[in-house]
Design goal:
Length: 261
């Protein structure tokens, strides 16, 4: 099995495969809906990248936005329509997302495919909807959840009691900075709240207790607490609410993630 980005010449084969799947699927969309999806893929094909899986020939394709890696369309050939090709394509896009340090991968799933994506690890992040023969539900895969419960060191660049750079007259009730390990090893400046110290600190080592995901924001904020301390979710939310109250966000907690796994 080979997985790689498709060449310009191979893109037409991918669109043919997409068309076959669209018009053969039952229950996910009407014929008119299938036509709209295919027309959209054909019209905006230059805006997307295409990832293909090959076993002697093209067996599946994943169409995605190159910067966010948002999945636009995923299809596998009829004689190969089992999970291994779809899973292989998803595995590849997830690995690329991790290397790009993206907090999440998003897609709009056909209602009939919801169970497949949930089994892979995607979560519903909005209401299901129907429009012009298209029925789908928004879903996302939270890439950074593997960091929950791990020990990290935060380098402070906005210390406790300092003024917020964008919110007038707001003082930081916590220390705030970036994860040293990611900055040193990969040049990534991952923001993090430090819960615990009530005075300025230059750096702090603790446990990733939670990750804040803001809706429609391509960055996340980690919550780091002392290894030996236990804070309630409510107490943490109160401490970071000075900033997060202005956003539509959700928090993925380490203790809840352990219960799910």
């Amino acid at each position: 099995m080979e997985i790689r980005n498709l060449t310009k010449d191979e893109r037409s084969d991918a669109l043919i495969l997409a068309g076959k799947v669209l018009f053969e699927e039952n229950g996910s969309w009407s014929e008119e809906g299938a036509k709209k999806i295919l027309s959209f893929l054909q019209e905006y094909t230059e805006d997307f990248d295409m990832l293909g899986v090959f076993e002697d020939r093209l067996r599946g394709v994943l169409i995605y936005e190159p910067e966010s890696l948002r999945i636009v369309f995923l299809a596998t050939a009829e004689d190969a329509r089992h999970e291994k090709h779809a899973v292989s394509l998803l595995d590849e896009i997830m690995e690329r997302g991790r290397k790009m340090h993206l907090p999440r991968i998003r897609l709009n799933a056909a209602l009939s495919a919801r169970a497949f994506y949930e089994a892979y690890g995607f979560e519903v992040c909005g209401e299901a909807s129907e429009s012009e023969g298209l029925r789908f539900v928004p879903m996302e895969y939270l890439l950074q959840k593997e960091w929950l419960g791990r020990t990290v060191t935060v380098i402070t660049d906005r210390p406790y009691g300092s003024f917020h750079p964008h919110l007038p007259d707001v003082l930081y009730p916590v220390n705030y900075g970036y994860i040293r390990e990611l900055a040193v090893q990969e040049g990534m400046f991952q923001d993090a709240y430090i819960i615990g110290p009530t005075e300025p600190v230059e750096e702090f080592t603790g446990i990733v207790t939670g990750i804040v995901y803001r809706k429609d924001d391509e960055v996340s904020r980690w919550i780091v607490t002392p290894a030996a301390a236990v804070y309630s979710h409510e107490a943490i939310i109160s401490l970071i609410g000075f900033e997060e109250q202005y956003y539509d966000c959700r928090i993925l907690w380490a203790d809840e993630n352990r219960m799910r796994s």
